[in-house]
């Protein structure tokens, strides 16, 4: 499939509308992660609908000293990849087309959630993101817009904007696509040398260590729920004179108390991997590691239950990367 390349709002609006329109917004330098979003958009639009991919490197969301100038721009390859993944059109406007009056004076404010984690490291970033997302939603007028979970805070803020400001557009989340060794696909990966890429694997490595610690805790909690029954069985076996089986059951019933774990243990397991990478050559410089409530991106407490997000941001050489994993916390003593 060949995608049409459109660069002005006039060209976009001249397109005849057919069926459901699903939009994937990107900054270009498309990779397999973007292709996953475009394929999901194709599913949503259906064979009679329309998939539009936007490619725009938005100056408003870059801070001073960030990589706006060196951000990879590969429009021809992007149009080919978008077409192969099922897009009907690529909308790649110029900065003047998006901001005809220069820097917009009226902008969307991302509010308190926009000042945490990514927002704390990149002041003003999410105001810039939401302002351009709002503009691109107005320009493309989709029924549904798809965003990657890789940018979990961005996704949460877009959902919040759409709800708070009644955009009436369906926001669809797409899970993070990874390389075989775990590294989250990202346009910025192309900045990495081979040695930097090895160090960068600690981002996903730390998340997986946190996830594994979490799974081990869940297993312990499940065991702890069985302990009273196991004690009772051990005692019954004792009474029957089955001393070996009784000893086994007593041993099983000594399951460690899972209450020593929880979010703190998950953070600690992830932290160990990042501390190791900080001593690697080249080293990883941690920006943040956080285990947060995805509804507001505040740190969760030990008694938190529900969906949480383990998120990390770090610099390797001159490249700043982010990654995250969702984790579900059940109440202690109950299955999650
Ligand atoms: N690995 C991935 N898996 C799923 N979605 C992704 C992935 N990488 C990016 N996306 C999503 O694609 C959309 C466009 O993202 P963007 O163009 O910034 O790509 P990126 O690879 O994240 O770039 P960058 O390296 O600049 O962060 C966003 O919704 C983003 O979450
Ligand atoms: C949503 C977005 C296209 C807005 O510029 C950008 O932040 C991105 O690519 O994730
Ligand atoms: N994918 C998030 C866009 C940015 O880093 O500016």
UniProtKB/TrEMBL annotation:
Protein species of origin: Streptomyces griseoviridis
Described purpose of this protein according to its UniProt entry: Catalyzes the condensation of pantoate with beta-alanine in an ATP-dependent reaction via a pantoyl-adenylate intermediate.
Main location: cytoplasm
Group of enzyme by EC: ligase
Annotated residues for binding of ATP: 27-34, 148-151, 177, 185-188
Other facts noted in the record for this chain: The reaction proceeds by a bi uni uni bi ping pong mechanism.
Protein's pathway: Cofactor biosynthesis; (R)-pantothenate biosynthesis; (R)-pantothenate from (R)-pantoate and beta-alanine: step 1/1
UniProt record similarity statement: Belongs to the pantothenate synthetase family.
Positions annotated to bind (R)-pantoate: 61, 154
EC number: 6.3.2.1
Native organism taxonomy: Bacteria, Bacillati, Actinomycetota, Actinomycetes, Kitasatosporales
Annotated gene: panC
Binding site for beta-alanine: 61
GO biological-process terms attached to the record: pantothenate biosynthetic process
Membrane-traversing stretches: none
Catalyzed reactions: (R)-pantoate + beta-alanine + ATP = (R)-pantothenate + AMP + diphosphate + H(+)
Alphabetized HAMAP family for the sequence: PanC (MF_00158)
UniProt keyword Transport present: no
A Pfam cross-reference name: Pantoate_ligase
Entry superkingdom: Bacteria
Active-site residues annotated for this sequence: 34
Protein name from the UniProt record: Pantothenate synthetase
InterPro entries: Pantoate_ligase, Pantoate_ligase_C, Rossmann-like_a/b/a_fold
A GO term for molecular function: pantoate-beta-alanine ligase activity
Quaternary assembly: Homodimer.
Compartments (UniProt record): Cytoplasm
GO cellular component: cytosol
